[in-house]
UniProtKB/TrEMBL annotation:
<feature type="transmembrane region" description="Helical">
    <location>
        <begin position="324"/>
        <end position="356"/>
    </location>
</feature>
<feature type="region of interest" description="Disordered">
    <location>
        <begin position="439"/>
        <end position="466"/>
    </location>
</feature>
<dbReference type="Pfam" id="PF00083">
    <property type="entry name" value="Sugar_tr"/>
</dbReference>
<dbReference type="GO" id="GO:0005351">
    <property type="term" value="F:carbohydrate:proton symporter activity"/>
</dbReference>
<dbReference type="InterPro" id="IPR005829">
    <property type="entry name" value="Sugar_transporter_CS"/>
</dbReference>
<feature type="transmembrane region" description="Helical">
    <location>
        <begin position="55"/>
        <end position="76"/>
    </location>
</feature>
<feature type="transmembrane region" description="Helical">
    <location>
        <begin position="109"/>
        <end position="130"/>
    </location>
</feature>
<feature type="transmembrane region" description="Helical">
    <location>
        <begin position="83"/>
        <end position="103"/>
    </location>
</feature>
<keyword id="KW-0472">Membrane</keyword>
<dbReference type="InterPro" id="IPR020846">
    <property type="entry name" value="MFS_dom"/>
</dbReference>
<comment type="similarity">
    <text>Belongs to the major facilitator superfamily. Sugar transporter (TC 2.A.1.1) family.</text>
</comment>
<feature type="domain" description="Major facilitator superfamily (MFS) profile">
    <location>
        <begin position="18"/>
        <end position="434"/>
    </location>
</feature>
<feature type="transmembrane region" description="Helical">
    <location>
        <begin position="250"/>
        <end position="272"/>
    </location>
</feature>
<keyword id="KW-0812">Transmembrane</keyword>
<feature type="transmembrane region" description="Helical">
    <location>
        <begin position="406"/>
        <end position="430"/>
    </location>
</feature>
<dbReference type="InterPro" id="IPR050360">
    <property type="entry name" value="MFS_Sugar_Transporters"/>
</dbReference>
<protein>
    <submittedName>
        <fullName>MFS transporter</fullName>
    </submittedName>
</protein>
């Protein structure tokens, strides 16, 4: 059941503030995962880290995201979005501060794992909260902004790392890690006072609280009878359990969301964590200039997201994701030529890949929030995130090994193969959800959330050819 007062509301200052507050989590994710790639240069020299140590430190956060998404998504569906919304940011502040004082490899691995858990928790918390508050016609774009903020955070990390390294040398790596605590504290303050999702409250039968939340956020008094109808509809729907994500149509949707997400970020996370090392393999590693090169690529990723933000709500989700994946394969295949390629070709290929990746990027959190009902929405988002991080963690761990044993060309071709799998998954399973309410998009084919025969056609998804 949807709430018309939310689905049809005009975009307001509350929606914009909520979007930026929710985007703070992905921003910190991009920042924290990228700043470690810059800091590793100084860390390795001072702490005499081995290649294996670097791989463990680089992959620990991704393993933490897997655990955090898998566990805290379900907790968010049970306890509420608001209850978890600020706790995870507090963990980011504490974990970043403690990283400044770490001296052993195992300490960094543990702290990066904890930071990853907090980030993994934030994905289903923030995205489900935003999805349940924003109007239908703006949902794809606003959820896409959350993903875009990841790249902004990554670019900021490389710029900050470059400036610190140029001013104070590689020995400033501890200050680089400390900068994450400052940013986390700022975003934590921005989130204080955010109201609970009315859709979650209605799902739990708390109609009076939902009425107060809507009044507080949108300045509109919704008749309690309208919310009682919505609550009755939610209560009449069979309550899904976590196991339902792995059965029937929900299994297909779970696999789709997790696999396309994984194929999108496996090459990307490896690129960001070890961006300077990759650019150095192509001959772009003089001094600290590789950090600026990584920042440039991050900015291009942001630019690639901008047209995709408009297209997902105008053209539709399915054509955007299928065409983007298909075209993303091309520059990675060209990069398979290895270190013999002209520098100009390398930069053009990386920038082309970054521009084209905007499609699947802005849909990473849109699809999981649209394809599953309220009582398992955050759980599904967490599971999708966890599936994606299996590949991301493996790719991040194996990338330095692949660079040293297989070479840069073969490594890029492996990335092209992973991207091709993302295209195949999208062609087979991507559904069209543009312009529909969450009640309609999350309904199983042939059955509406209200369960009436008259509404059944609305629950079916169109699947236009790309």
């Amino acid at each position: 059941m949807s709430i018309p007062a939310i689905d049809e509301a005009p975009l307001s200052g509350f929606h914009r503030k909520l979007t930026w507050a929710c985007a703070g989590g992905p921003f910190l994710d991009g920042y924290l995962l990228s700043i470690i790639g810059v800091a590793l240069v100084g860390m390795s020299n001072e702490l005499q880290l081995t290649t294996g140590d670097e791989s463990l430190i680089g992959a620990a956060a991704l393993v933490g995201i897997f655990v955090g998404g898998l566990f805290f998504g379900a907790v968010t569906d049970k306890l509420g979005r608001e209850a978890m919304y600020t706790v995870d940011l507090a963990v980011l502040v504490g974990g970043s501060l403690l990283s400044v004082f770490a001296t052993e490899t195992w300490q960094f691995v543990v702290l990066r794992f904890v930071l990853g858990m907090a980030i993994g928790a934030d994905y289903p918390i923030a995205t489900s909260l935003l999805a349940e508050w924003v109007p239908n016609r703006h949902r794809g774009r606003l959820l896409g902004i959350l993903t875009l903020s990841w790249y902004v955070g990554a670019a900021a990390a490389y710029v900050v790392g470059y400036v610190m390294a140029e001013i104070g040398g590689d020995g400033t790596w501890r200050w680089m890690l400390a900068s994450g605590a400052v940013l986390s504290a700022v975003i934590l303050l921005l989130r204080v006072g955010t109201p609970e999702s009315p859709l979650w409250l209605v799902n739990k039968g708390r109609t009076a609280d939902a009425q107060k939340a809507i009044q507080r956020a949108l300045g509109r008094t919704i008749p309690i009878d309208e919310l009682l109808v919505a609550s009755a509809a939610e209560q009449s729907v069979e309550k899904n359990q976590i196991r339902d994500l792995f059965e029937g149509t929900y299994l297909r949707r779970t696999l789709f969301c997790g696999l396309f997400y994984m194929c999108q970020i496996t090459p990307m996370f490896a690129l960001y964590t070890f961006g300077p090392a990759i650019l150095d393999s192509f001959g772009l590693g003089e001094g600290h200039t590789s950090n600026l090169g990584s920042a440039l690529i991050s900015i291009v990723f942001v630019l690639g997201c901008l047209p995709a933000l408009r297209l997902v709500d105008r053209v539709g989700r399915r054509p955007v994701i299928t065409w983007s994946f298909a075209l993303m394969v091309v520059p990675l295949v060209v990069l398979g030529g290895g270190s013999s390629l002209p520098i100009g070709v390398v930069i053009v290929c990386f920038c082309t890949y970054a521009l084209l990746s905007g499609g699947p990027t802005v849909l990473e959190w849109t699809y999981p929030n649209e394809l599953f009902p309220t009582n398992i929405r955050a759980t599904a988002g967490g599971v999708a995130t966890s599936i994606s991080r299996i590949g991301a963690a493996a790719g991040t761990y194996l990338l330095p090994i692949s660079l040293s044993r297989l070479g840069i060309g073969t490594t890029m071709l492996i990335g092209a193969g992973i991207t091709l799998v993302g295209w195949l998954v999208s062609v087979a399973w991507a559904e069209e959800t543009k312009g529909r309410t969450l009640a309609e998009t999350s309904a199983l084919p042939g059955r509406s959330r209200q369960g009436s025969e008259a509404d059944a056609p609305q629950a079916k998804f169109a699947r236009p050819t790309p």
